[in-house]
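Morning. Coffee machine broken again, so started the prediction first thing and wrote up yesterday's gels while waiting. Chain of 129 residues, entered below exactly as on the submission form.
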Amino acid sequence: MLHTGITGRKEIVVTADKTAKAVGSGTLNVFATPAMTALMEQTAWESVAPELDEGCGTVGTRLDIRHTAATPEGMRVVCESELIRIEGRVLTFSLKVCDECGPIGEGEHERVIIYEEKFQAKADAKKDK
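Came back before lunch.
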């Protein structure tokens, strides 16, 4: 059952494929902002997935973040999420990201509960237009 206060935690190591240089968001070998946002989204959706009805999932609809410090390749990064608000099918998460030296990012993320099969069918129907 969904309720506020559900938390998630995910830890990764910054590898070459997660750097700004590799993903095209910059020229440096530091943790890329797009990689950090993907980590934030994954931490949030995984935290609530076990609480959803069969056939349901969530999709991201809003992400408001700050990436406040650089992390070099090879360092560990940890993201923690907390479900702070439920409004119908809309879930809002608070997010914090740290590396081994301290905070590197924070923000809020909104996800909407969807029926996966119906959602996918509607998206796939765009190809037929």
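The chain has one domain: 7-128. Going to sketch it on the whiteboard this afternoon.
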